[in-house]
Amino acid sequence: MLALIQRVTSAKVVVEGETVGAIGPGLLALVGIEPGDGAVQVQRIADRLLNYRVFADAEGKMNLGLAHTGGGLLLVSQFTLAADTRSGLRPGFSTAAPPAEAERVFSDLVAICREKYAGGVETGRFGAHMEVSLVNDGPVTFLLRS
Hints:
Belongs to the DTD family. This protein is an alpha/beta fold. The protein contains three helices and eight strands, in the order βββαββαβαββ.
């Protein structure tokens, strides 16, 4: 499982002209599910999303995680993140989980994050064509792997 996280001042997801998820300051996480990802990977990524220290403390150092700041978390499933780009000029998607498996795993991730974090967890819409907009704060962007 992969999560490309971006510290944001705001982010939103629009599907067919409707905003389906939006946050103020917090984290936008684009999540790629790989074949075989399950409960262990979901738990690890959830813990990292909520606790990865990307927010500044009183001294301006990145020492605080989302759970310490109360910011929003916007989770967006993105199968292209798991693409094989090692060769050629076209991505291969055999390294991404099949849609049914990915949707189940992504739903588990959303449920665990909502259970563990009261600060607000929003999502895009699985399988939809989404317009994701954000204001990257920093910019601060990290690629997490389970």
